[in-house]
UniProtKB/TrEMBL annotation:
Residues 157-184 are annotated as: Disordered. One of its GO terms (molecular function) is electron transfer activity. Residues 1-28 form the signal peptide. Keywords: Signal. It comes from Sorangium cellulosum So0157-2. This is Cytochrome c domain-containing protein.
C-alpha cells in the first residue's frame, strides 16, 4: 500500500509541475512568436572587423572596377594601397559624362552618417549602381566607409562631371544604347 501512495504522491507532484509550468511555457511561446511578427533582418556581411567586411564588400561590389585606375589591366591584383583613387576616364551617356570619384578623398569629407545618407538618397549619376547600394544594410555601408577611410587619403580628385552636349576633355567610355543593325 505504501508503494501505491508514493506512486499517487509522485503523480500529484508531476501534475502540479505540469500545471505550474504552463504559464512559463505560454510566456516562452509568446516571446518566441514576437520574433515571428518582426520582418526578417536584412542580411549583412559578418567579418572579424568592420574594415575586413568593408574590404570584402569593395571587392565583391566591383568598386575597384571603376574607382581604381588599372584594376582591369592588373586582373584585380593591385595592392590595396592603390585602390579607390578615382579615375579620369569618364562614362558618357545621356546624362553627360561622369567620373568615378576618388573615394579615399571623399570619405575624408564625410561622416559615417553622411556616407550612409548619400547612399540611401541614391541620387548620383550613372553608371554608379546607386539603387543597389541604397538597399544595403547600414552595417555594410559603414563597413565600406571604415575600410576606405583606413586606407588614408591618396591621389587627386576626379574631374568634374560634364553636362550633356558638352565635350569632355578626358578619354571616356561611350554608354549609349545602339539600335540593332538592319537586315536586308
Amino acid at each position: 500500500m505504501r508503494a501505491g501512495s508514493r506512486s499517487s504522491a509522485a503523480r500529484a507532484r508531476a501534475a502540479r509541475r505540469a500545471v505550474l509550468g504552463l504559464p512559463g511555457a505560454a510566456l516562452a511561446a509568446v516571446i518566441g512568436c514576437a520574433d515571428c511578427a518582426q520582418p526578417p533582418a536584412t542580411p549583412h556581411v559578418m567579418a572579424a572587423s568592420p574594415e575586413e567586411a568593408g574590404r570584402y564588400l569593395i571587392l565583391v561590389g566591383g568598386c575597384n572596377d571603376c574607382h581604381t585606375p588599372g584594376w582591369d589591366r592588373s586582373s584585380g591584383r593591385l595592392p590595396a594601397s592603390e585602390w579607390l583613387t578615382g579615375n579620369d576616364v569618364g562614362y558618357r551617356g545621356p546624362w553627360g559624362t561622369s567620373y568615378a570619384e576618388n573615394l579615399r578623398l571623399s570619405v575624408q569629407d564625410l561622416s559615417e552618417d553622411a556616407w550612409v545618407r548619400m547612399f540611401r538618397a541614391a541620387a548620383g549619376r550613372p553608371p554608379m549602381p546607386w539603387l543597389n547600394y541604397a538597399t544595403m544594410h547600414e552595417r555594410d555601408l559603414v563597413a565600406m566607409y571604415r575600410f576606405i577611410r583606413s586606407l588614408g587619403a591618396k591621389g587627386a580628385r576626379a574631374p568634374r562631371a560634364v553636362p550633356p552636349g558638352e565635350e569632355p576633355e578626358t578619354p571616356y567610355i561611350l554608354m549609349v544604347p545602339q539600335p540593332p543593325a538592319r537586315r536586308p
